[in-house]
Amino acid sequence: MAIIKIKRPQLTIAEKLYLPAVIKGLSITLGHAIRAVLGKTPGAKRNFNSSGMGITMQYPETKWDDQLPDYYRGVPALVTDEKGRERCVSCQLCEFICPPKAIAIIPTEIESDDPWAKVEKRPQVFDIDMTRCIYCGMCEEVCPEQAIYLRQDYAMTGLSRAEMVNDKERLYEIGGVREGLVNKWNEIK
């Protein structure tokens, strides 16, 4: 095997000195500052209803809601069907596929006298720890009943870790109703 020696490129005198690089960086920063004050920065007053000082969004007053793309993945939530029945069958696929293990499900059986006893299971406990969730969307992809969705909500806050754990009731409150065929309630299946 041949040995190849690579020669290091020689620096010019301007490249060896520290001061020209600092002056170049300061000139770029000063140019951006002047354009921001004059309102000539991209996005100023147009895209984010900003103050005109650049593309910084004034968050509490201005929200991202009208700027979010359709494919944005936000807070996960459980949904019900049109009749208020839960779509989740406690298959636990979302729990098993979740990379950070943010989902915890404890299934329970449906009573035999219930008209939907053929389904067999429903979630007794369904918790999502939002401090662990990475919004990857794998739970939504794997759900056979389309019971879990990633909504376009991005402002999930809490004052403690306990407030950041969404239980089943909170997940249904966030999710709401989703229309369409539900395999779980299909008479033929």
Keyword list:
alpha+beta, three-stranded antiparallel beta sheet, 189 residues, Alpha-Beta Plaits, 2 domains
Please explain how this structure is put together:
This protein has a three-stranded antiparallel β-sheet with strand order 2-3-5. 22% of the residues lie in helices and 13% in strands. The protein contains five helices and five strands. The chain has helices at 13-16, 19-38, 93-97, 138-142, 168-175; strands at residues 76-78, 103-109, 121-129, 148-150, 165-166. It is elongated. The mean pLDDT is 82. The protein is an alpha+beta fold. It has two domains: 10-63, no CATH class; 76-185, Alpha-Beta Plaits (2-Layer Sandwich).
Question: What percentage of amino acids are in beta strands?
Answer: 5-15%
Largest sheet: 3 strands, antiparallel
The count of β-strands is 5
The strand line-up of the biggest sheet is 2-3-5
Number of domains: 2
Report the mean per-residue pLDDT as an integer.
82
Looking at the structure, the CATH topology of the largest domain is Alpha-Beta Plaits
Please bin the fraction of helical residues. Answer: 10-25%
Radius of gyration: 27 Å
Uncertain stretches of 5 or more adjacent residues: none
